[in-house]
Each structure stands twice: as C-alpha cells, then as structure tokens.
Amino acid sequence: MSSKQRVFEDFRLYAVTDLREDDLSVLAKIEAAYAGGVDIVQLRSKTLNDHALYRIGREIRAISERMGKLFFVNDRPDLALALKADGVHLGQEDMPFQAARALCRGAGRRFWIGRSTHRIDQALEAESEGADYVAVGPVFATPTKPGRKAAGLEYVREVSAQLKIPLVAIGGIDATNIRQVLEAGARRIAVVRALFGGDDAYQAAQRLRSEIDQFQSLATL
User: Fold this and answer.
1) What is the pLDDT of residues 135-152, one digit of tens each?
2) What's the predicted TM-score (pTM) here?
3) 192 vs 70, 81, 99, 110, 203, CA distance in Å?
4) pLDDT > 60? residue 221
5) Residue 88: what are its φ and ψ, rounded to 5°?
6) Domains of the chain, start order
7) Cα–Cα distances in Å, from 208 out to 36, 39, 112, 116, 195?
C-alpha cells in the first residue's frame, strides 16, 4: 500500500477552505492545519477566478507533498488534474460522477472522488456509482451553505448504518458539538470555519483531532 493510500484509508480530519480573496496568507493556516492533525485539505472557493485558484492550489499541493498528506479540489475535475491533486469532491449539481471518473482515469495514478449527499438515496447512489467516499450534511446549519436545510444527526446515523464506503460528516461542526456527531456514527469529520475561521489553525486542528482519536480509542475498548 502506498503512503497516500494509507493516508486515505486512515483519514479522520478533513479541512475545506472557503476562500474569498486571492491571498496567499491562507497557506500558513493550511500548513498549520496539516501539522495539527488534518489529513486532507480541499481547495474550495465560490468567488476566485481560475488563475487565482491555480496559483493557490499549486502551493497547497506542494505543502501536502512535503508533509505526506492529501490535497483535493472542490467541484472541478479539470482543475484537480491540472494541479496534480490527489482527488476531487463533487456536489450534487457538478459533473456526473461517471464522466468525472472517465476524465480522471487519465491521471496515471490513484485519484479519489467524493460526492456531497444530503439524503440517503443520494448516498446510496454515490456508493453504487463507485464514489470513494461521501460527505454527509450539512449536519448543522452553516453559513457556508446558505439556504441549505440541516440534514441533522439522524442522517449521519442512517448513512453510517447502511454504507460500506467512508462517510465524512460536514456542516457546522466544531469543538462544541463534534462529540454528538461521533456518537451518531461518524468516524471522519470535515470542517471549514472551525479551522480557518480563527487565528490558530494548528491548535484548532489538534483539538478536533484529539476529540476524534479519543472517541475512537474508547469505542474500541
């Protein structure tokens, strides 16, 4: 098993950016997040142009390679391939899964594809299509998904009981409620503001990772 495959098999903390400005200062937070326990960073922005995303993405990829972690891109298989990312995350309205998979076969290496889901039928469909993981949420209401009704903890319970592929709980999760999400069945957690919304991404990542690891240790006793 390759080192990257091992990271994916064992990943627990997944960080998603929400970039609003073309500002390389975010790279210090991303490096700190990786150092604090993040396994995957996803490049996500709903406002930046492709030139800015490519420039920032190249830097994130370099950090991920140096630290032995994974780098994914949101929405855009083409950009993920151009950046030589490790994977891409697709929303429900993005490129159809099979088209993305066909495009990414040309990468010449292992390339992971995840899918956002908000209902159990979407999660089951993603699994049947061959998704490597599904994102489950938003668990709680979050400003990064305006207008999107929270899927709730019950959805986490439902998916964790039925799916065989990894699920990642996302949406409004932070240190105050992460235990509820873990108790609902999630073993992998994705966060946005809980890491990048504060000043100390390293400490935030450490705290979240500690919560996940401690819960996992207790669950195996």
Assistant:
1) 999 999 877 666 678 889
2) 0.95
3) 16, 23, 28, 26, 14
4) no
5) -135, 150
6) 3-113+170-219 (3.20.20.70)
7) 9, 12, 24, 22, 9
